[in-house]
Amino acid sequence: MARLYLGVDGGQSSTIALIADESGRVIGRGHSGPCNHVGTAEGRAKFLSAAGDCLENACRNAGLDAATVTFASACLGFSGGAEDKEAYARELIRSGKYKITHDAEIALTGATAGEPGIIVIAGTGSIAFGRNAEGRTARAGGWGYIFGDEGGGFDITRQALRAALKDEEGWGPATNLRGLLPASIGASSANDLMHRFYAGVPRTQVAALARIVNDAAEHGDAIAREILSGAAWNLASYAEGAYRNLFREREIVPVAHVGGVFRSALLRGEFVRAIRERIACPCGPPKLSPAAGALLEAMRLDGNTSRLSGLPESEK
Questions:
Q1: Residues 9-54: pLDDT tens digits?
Q2: pTM score, two decimals?
Q3: Hey, which end of the chain has fewer CB within 10 Å, N or C?
Q4: Which residues, listed in sequence order, are joined to residue 95 by a DSSP beta bridge?
């Protein structure tokens, strides 16, 4: 009987499943909505619906019956942690072996195509995660918006609003952020914007305003450029922290960067420079997607070291 493998990337915005055969050829892909919360009855229902739909879509695409298929092994990586989702995942998926893990691990495996290295993820928040040749892992950051997440979108917006408030109150240097940030959501002033944030604007919406900081920096605003530079070096410090825990001094390993924050060419360039200066490692975008990373982890769990082939363009 053919051995089949399943990899799932369960994130805050979407869920993606990939199915491969024993040769590593991808034969099915499924896509559905987010499945990152199971803390409430509504969250569990959404999780089961999203994960179930994703699996069914991938099986249909592969010509399989989702109601009867049993995988040789399956790996599922979830945003927000894996512990509270494992029982539900096992309930949905029949597999001989399971690996239920966090999204940073599958992102790293995809980013390096399974080789040792480090990934820095910077979206709303931030984290670095690494793995060495012995399989030992280490993380740096990912502490959330109150105690950490330096260099993430929320932190960049927070730094920008602080600069705008200082300018508005007359005790900080002038910056175009004072006008640009409030105008971006129709606030009357930096102070008004601050109170709107305190009133409960979702963190993802706050983080999205990091693009305003990048626009200001590209138009020559010194304060905005300073904020982006600081974010880049903070993210590099996370990578350095993971590196020091896993690798020998001057050992060369790839460092991958992923997440919305790295859409900023200014920040990305400064980050690459900081990585080269601090740990002298090559730095660039991921080789493969987190879903492909999950699929590689599933195959490795079964002792299958085949390379993936037939990946959809969206997963490369």
A1: 987 778 899 999 999 999 999 988 877 665 666 667 777 777 888 8
A2: 0.86
A3: N
A4: 71
- State the architecture of 115-286 in CATH terms: 2-Layer Sandwich (3.30)
The listed range with the strongest mean pLDDT (28-32, 81-85, 199-203, 274-278) is: 274-278
The total of other beta-carbon atoms located within 10 Å of residue 165's CB is 19
Annotated domain spans of the chain: 5-113+287-315, 115-286
Burial 117-140 (b: 16+ CB within 10 A, else e): bbbbbbbbbbbbbbbbeeeeebbb
In the sheet with 255-258, reading across from the earlier edge strand, the strands are 137-141, 126-131, 117-122, 255-258, 283-284
Average pLDDT over every residue of 44-69: 85
What mean pLDDT is predicted for residues 74-96? Answer: 81
Kindly indicate the confidence band of residue 227, based on its pLDDT and cuts at 50, 70 and 90: very high
| Side chain identity, residue 266 | L
Contact 207, 245 (CB under 8 A): no
Q: Do 115-286 and 5-113+287-315 fall under one CATH topology?
A: yes
Query: If one looks up domain 5-113+287-315 in CATH, what number appears?
Result: 3.30.420.40
Distance between first and last Cα of the chain: 29
Closest CA to 300 of 114, 134, 130: 114
